[in-house]
Design goal:
mainly alpha
Amino acid sequence: MNRDELALSTGARHGRGTAASARAAARRSRVTVIIPPGRFSLPRWSELWEAREVAYRFAQRDVLLRYRQTVVGVAWVVLQPLASAGIFSIVFGQVANLSSDGVPYFIFSFMGMLAWNLFNNVLGRSAPSLVSNQSLVSKVFFPRMIVPLSSAASVLLDFLVALVLGVVLLIVYGINPGWPVLLVPIWVVLVVLLASGLGLIASALQVKYRDVGYVLPWLLQILLYASPVAYAISVVPENLQGLFNANPLTWMLGMFRWSLLGLDQPPLWQIGGFAVVAVAAFYLGALFFQSWERNFADVI
């Protein structure tokens, strides 16, 4: 290599090194401007996406803490719906002798509990999440909405484990739900949207009003029996049918039982109505959360 070629090669390497150093310096000197959310503004979805690693760590911690130092471990995920379905099948199926729309009462109530637990656990775990992480919320900056939303990840894991058992029960009982089973992921997404939207509202309220931690479990317990989880909607007296059919959770249970048990398809207005309610609940929950977020660090 002659002197000119050596000079050109050295200059090129120097140029690449200078450019790399400039990019590294730009990354180090990048300034992040924190702007408080507006009173009626939606969250900045780009910020949530950039903080996805934080959401993953929250979800991972929830799973580990939930089953750490337990004797039974992850088996609690299937024991709870199994025990509830067994009690419901005895009380409502044998003692009260209620109808289960032609399918064995045990699997009828098990599938109902599967859908109910998805809704109940997402809402129930997201509501106290901010208060449970108050030291992080008050001292470290990150999108606060990640805390209640990440609660859904551990619930989805529980749901998938219980769903596997549900498939085994379908095989045991010889039930073939048919093609509607392909719609289950859509119903799951809608339920998570509905429960997460309500959870955002409940978690924001609980920061200021700790009464939410006492009232919400009580309301969910009442809602469990006010919704056709352990019984069929067909056994509800005719004068109360309109009240039960106005409950979006009735629509949810009908969709799950159609897809998982092969029962009659719910009316299209219930399917469309549940999709609208789920999306609207999440949208309103995000707006409400954003409007209250600016005061979290002061009152938590």
